[in-house]
Write a structure and sequence with these properties.
single chain, 336 residues, mainly beta, Methylamine Dehydrogenase, Chain H, 3% helix, 52% strand
Length: 336
């Protein structure tokens, strides 16, 4: 484990000193140690197969806090100070406790060769798209939890659930006869409820409980990126926002939402569900992932192996965090 101190503080130095002597990824399991307080930011390094933790309150980083499986592809926090990491080639979900470093709490295996792609947490179940088997998986998130598989249309890429309905976005690969769109299934039974027409190739999707809306990001990576705001009850698109780029996972800000331009550029798209869009060209190389704590956005730049902090209101870059290994991509906030 590598620890970096960003500020000079005796109390912080004590925490970091304790962390620096703890075992890293011990086969015996997680080690419980006094970690810095407060909410934190976690990201996975896609080509380094590790997870880094950043603690804003103490301005400190724990690099290589956990090892992921083969080809991590998504990360989220299901609450209770936990992190879930989805591994596409390893076909597994790993769960970590941010108060423990050195090992996973438990993992759940998914079907071999299914290429798990993205996740959604609805407060009770974890939902996962299985790209290569045209299925979604519903997981009970505890050791030995049940995995229930439901058949859906080909190329399930993205997923969002409000606890009642599950929205499954579809891409254009590997079955090229499928152009995209969203299919809707019942969260309890898996039965089909309907479909929603969107532009081609739904890449990312997220449900926001604060507004009760689903946001779907579509793009063929030719500057045609669209953000579709969806009413999940009516199963209708209420607003379409043209970005002229390739928007990734959205995150909520105090006054709206923000999404990065993926690997294409360092552009950030600030938008509202009523259709307003403000594009900020940050000067970063890429913006693969974005998450906000208050008015501060944390932006992963896998092409430079860094995570940038930005002031959402002032549109200024505040600081740079060095990733522990290469390719920081997916990022999430963890409330404690």
């Amino acid at each position: 484990m590598r620890i970096e101190k960003m500020t000079a503080n005796c109390t912080i130095a004590f925490f970091l000193a304790v962390l620096s002597v703890s075992a890293c990824n011990s086969p015996a399991g997680p080690d419980v140690n006094p970690t810095p307080q407060g909410s934190l930011i976690a990201w996975f390094n896609g080509t380094g197969y590790t997870v880094d933790l950043y603690f804003p309150l103490s301005d400190s980083i724990v690099t290589g806090a956990y090892y992921t499986g083969n080809i991590p592809n998504d990360i989220l926090s299901p609450g209770d100070g936990r992190i879930a990491v989805l591994n596409s080639f390893g076909c597994s979900v790993q769960v970590f406790d941010v108060d423990s470093t050195g090992g996973e709490l438990f993992s759940i295996q998914l079907p071999d060769g299914s290429n798990p792609y993205q996740m959604s947490w609805d407060g009770e179940h974890l939902w996962v798209t299985l790209l290569l088997t045209a299925q979604v998986a519903r997981l009970e998130l505890y050791p030995g939890g049940n995995v229930t598989l439901f058949d859906v249309d080909p190329n399930p890429t993205s997923i969002a659930s409000d606890g009642y309905s599950v929205f499954v976005g579809h891409g254009t690969w590997p079955d090229t006869s499928m152009s995209g769109g969203i299919s809707v299934i019942d969260a309890a039974s898996g039965s089909a409820l309907g479909s929603i027409q969107t532009p081609d190739n739904v890449c990312f999707m997220r449900y926001f409980s604060t507004s009760g809306r689903v946001h779907a990001m579509t793009t063929t990576y030719t500057g045609d990126g669209m953000i579709s705001v969806i009413d999940p009850v009516a199963m209708q698109v209420t607003e379409e926002i043209e970005t002229g780029g390739s928007p990734g996972f959205p995150s909520e800000t105090p006054w709206g939402f923000v999404a990065g331009d993926g690997w294409s550029s360092g552009t950030l798209y600030f938008y509202r569900e009523t259709g307003e869009l403000d594009t900020w060209t940050t000067g970063l190389t890429s913006a693969a992932g974005v998450v906000c704590l208050g008015d501060t956005a944390y932006v992963t730049d896998p092409l430079t192996d860094r995570v940038f902090m930005a002031d959402c209101s002032a549109r200024t870059l505040l600081d740079t965090l060095q990733a522990g290994t290469s390719g920081p991509q997916g990022i999430t906030s963890v409330q404690r």
